[in-house]
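Structure, all two chains, one model.
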Amino acid sequence: MKKVYSRPRSLKETHFHYCPGCGHAIVNRLLAEVVDEMDLRDTAICVAPAGCGMLVYNYFDIDTLESAHGRGAAVATGIKRVRPENLVFSYQGDGDLAAIGTAESFHAANRGELITVIFVNNGVYGMTGGQMAPTTVIDQVTTTTPGGRASDQAGHPVRMCEVLAVLDGTSYLERVAVNKPAAIVAAKKAIIKAFQHQLNRTGFSMVEVLSPCPTNWKMGPIEACKWIDDVMTKHFPLGVVKEVKC
Amino acid sequence: MKRLMSGNAAAGEAAVLAGCTCYFGYPITPQNELTEYMAKRIPEIGGVFIQSESEIAAINMVLGASVAGARAMTSSSGPGISLKQEGISYLAADELPAVILNMVRGGPGMGNISPAQSDYLQATRGGGHGDYRTIVLAPSSVQEIADLMPLAFDLAEKYRNPVVVLGDGMLGQMMEPVSFDHITRGETYPKDYILTGAKGRASRMVRSLLFDVKEEEEHNWKLSRKYQRIEQNEVRYETYLIEDAKMVVVAYGTSARIAKGAIARLRQENLKVGMIRPVTLWPFPAKIIQEAAKQIPDFFVFEMSAGQLIEDVRLALEGKGHVHFYGRPGGIIPTPVELYRIISRHYYQAERSRKS
């Protein structure tokens, strides 16, 4: 009998700790599948963030460094410059990448660092209990925007792919989602493409993944997946934001 | 052969000769000559130079380069060193080697760009969050900056711990003849912790998050045992004319040089003053001060701050001896004559009180 589905080599044999319906587990698995399929496990180095994605090193069976909150792109820069032959990617959430780590992300992108950022955007600070993130959409209720995010008081959701697209150092920026099978297939393709841009030394690459957080959105998992389509993608349109010839 | 160089440039050259291949920095006076030197020098050896977007980014690039196996350093001054404390705490927690050079300026806040020694406590008490220490080396001449750089990299790798080289604006910017003839790449230490990709071995993770409090406590005790080994093995100091001394000056770096000038004048007048100059500020040379206190009743702490080194001298003395103090904070560089006058006054007063 042909085996059509199994645990990727680059994932450890352990259970995910993520909440039911969380998108992180899907993104973790996609990354492990891509690392396996592109035969990159021997050279891959992952930089883990602070936040829900922090514990990826419990799941990835590849070399991993835990970065301080927001500093993933700077740490990955140090690693990649010393080891240009390795595949170096950082795994970061929205608060990590687009609030506390904005400077590090922006300037790594501007220098065209040959790293890949996997940016998991779920619109909230998950690990700390659901506070407003830079990507929280207008009117979204969080623990620090109890009346919904009001732009006059709390600003607007940050579209990082579009922000980084204006920088000459970036070569591949795509926004995907992991809320339904077709989207997950597209997400995997985007990760493959981003890694190809790094391997071809084209420039900085990032895949932004819209990811459900039922726990902090106070929704059921199915409702959360639907909310990505109905609300989140209106603020964060899916698709390739920038792609230079690879 | 000797070359006339600023302390900042000499630090850079010595670092390269000591095997440093990665430099990350952000402009701040009075240490810019080092960043500029490295911008030219590092590419010559095929290394990595990045002018970072901030001091926070620089220290995190150092962390990345270090975990990738390279000898890496950064440099800054007061305000920038404050920003680096986050990364230094992570380096200590992750047990990663790194060298951080601080050419101290007047503070707090923006302060000014004149030489000061007001970052002593920040450097010797860890500086960032959590229970950790950094080894702190305090050169007092351009030549000693060059001499201590290879030691800084060796100690960082030997103990897998960040090492701070604590200078000041004067040491950084003054030019002196300096020889690099004896400076080489030091020891080679096993690097079985670095990240290279998991080819042919189990994957590694380098982290400081330990949710399990028992694990975190054990990690803290492990670090603590390491710090005890450093305290046992790595204390360095210089003694100067203490054999017959009635009063001993305790001073480091630029202050120690000023004190030597003052002591020369005091000795001309037959005042028996000597000096203990800590070269490692942490681990602190407490034992030699305790030893000296058996014979010598008076200790004179001199520093370019409002009183930071004095805390360690008091701790070392454990209530023994009399502690005198003269400090000039804010970027003032006292002259040897000024210090000579102050010390002689204290010397005579101490002599009178001993007699009465």
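The beta strands of chain A are 44-48, 63-66, 87-93, 116-121, 124-125, 131-132, 170-177, 204-210, 239-243.
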